[in-house]
Amino acid sequence: MKPIKVIVAGPRGKMGSAALRMIQQSDNLQLVGCIDRKFDGQIVKDLDGLPDFEAKIYEDPEVCLNEVEADVLIDLTTPEFGYKHTKLALENGVRPVVGTTGFTKEQLNELTEMAENKRIGAVIAPNFAIGAVLMMQFSKWAAKHFPDVEIIERHHDQKLDAPSGTAVKTAELIQEEREAKHQGHPDEKETMKGARGADSEGLKIHSVRLPGLVAHQEVMFGGSGETLTIKHDSINRDSFMTGVKLSVERVMEMDILAYGLENLLD
Ligand SMILES: NC(=O)C1=CN([C@@H]2O[C@H](COP(=O)(O)OP(=O)(O)OC[C@H]3O[C@@H](n4cnc5c(N)ncnc54)[C@H](O)[C@@H]3O)[C@@H](O)[C@H]2O)C=CC1
Ligand SMILES: O=C(O)C1=N[C@H](C(=O)O)C[C@H](O)C1
């Protein structure tokens, strides 16, 4: 079997460097190029702290996608550039596997339509950790019985987007099971702006940002005389790599965009 040829955008980041290590440990994946903000023309193995790959680094994603023959682009960058890279990949017939969060609904719809028109597989997964996918699915199930629910997500303080992509996706899944509803007292007033968190159809999302954290979420349901809390913790970034690898393998057989890793799991 020929290896799957992969470009990684954001190779020096926390997730990008974990993805390079995952590729290094995989017999069926081959790194063929990287897209970075810096180090144009350099070779991955010559950069401090990166694994021993011969692949070239490109600052211009268009040049990279023109020059390099690739099957898949893994994007782990920022909301602004992740969106641009995903679009470019689809335009160039390269399947995107995107972990970058913070895309708008309009951007997700546009990319979904592009993939469908071009019949190219794509994966955009707000969370690649299997436990996080289960946490979201369990929350969707619980919302059938407990429509009152709030989300508390906790992340490291270098995170650019709030709420997290996982929290947004969890809220969307819960809203498939419950009607929009105002939670809390009908006359409640915030005496300090933001005290009740962000509002997604009445569901409140609270975002904590602190050094020392990785990625954590609690989905808390309240009913008559009881509460139920569904909690997931990513202790380190290896937790996401099973899902990244699975997505790279599965996307090769797909011809539409899947939003969420749950669409790839049995
Ligand atoms: N889906 C998932 O399971 C997960 C998703 N994420 C998301 O992945 C993204 C990256 O997260 P981290 O690695 O923690 O961030 P990071 O800040 O450590 O890494 C981002 C990297 O992107 C690079 N970058 C920025 N602009 C670029 C450009 N124009 N071209 C190429 N590279 C560029 C930066 O130099 C940096 O190395 C974030 O959106 C985060 O929310 C993070 C963890 C898990
Ligand atoms: O930025 C992060 O770290 C993470 N981002 C994703 C998100 O926004 O949900 C996934 C995970 O929570 C880690």
UniProtKB/TrEMBL annotation:
Involved pathway(s): Amino-acid biosynthesis; L-lysine biosynthesis via DAP pathway; (S)-tetrahydrodipicolinate from L-aspartate: step 4/4
Region (Disordered): 178-201
Highest taxon of source: Bacteria
Binding positions (NAD(+)): G10, P11, R12, G13, K14, M15, E59, G99, T100, T101, A125, P126, N127, F128
Catalytic activity: (S)-2,3,4,5-tetrahydrodipicolinate + NAD(+) + H2O = (2S,4S)-4-hydroxy-2,3,4,5-tetrahydrodipicolinate + NADH + H(+); (S)-2,3,4,5-tetrahydrodipicolinate + NADP(+) + H2O = (2S,4S)-4-hydroxy-2,3,4,5-tetrahydrodipicolinate + NADPH + H(+)
Locations listed in the record: Cytoplasm
Residues where (S)-2,3,4,5-tetrahydrodipicolinate binds: H156, G165, T166
Domain Dihydrodipicolinate reductase N-terminal: 4-128
Cellular component GO terms held in the UniProt record: cytosol
NCBIfam families in the cross-refs: dapB
UniProt subunit comment: Homotetramer.
Name under which the protein is recorded: 4-hydroxy-tetrahydrodipicolinate reductase
Source species: Thalassobacillus cyri
